[in-house]
User: What shape does this take?
Amino acid sequence: STTRRPRLLNALASLLTCLLINHLGSDAEAAAVANLISGGALPNLTHLNLGSNGIGPAGVGALADAISQGGAPNLVEISLADNLGLGEGSTVALVEAVATRGGRLIL
Assistant: This one.
């Protein structure tokens, strides 16, 4: 049933510890991932790999905001390898957000 599907998807998302997403294509999709993080959908996530996604400053900023506000509290590693034009300010904000958890950002 359609009412069971969202509960099942939410339950599955809450179990994820590692998430690899390639070829998102834009900052809008990175912002959607940030919304999942800030909305509490990924509480057990420890590693997030968003390499090769065409993410720019707006997407990195959205991720930084979501993490600095306490989303995905167990997240300790983010990879943004092979994304061009991340933007210095937003990347520094993301490094700081992850570093407060003792984590690291891979570029």
Summary: The first strand starts at residue 18 and ends at 20.
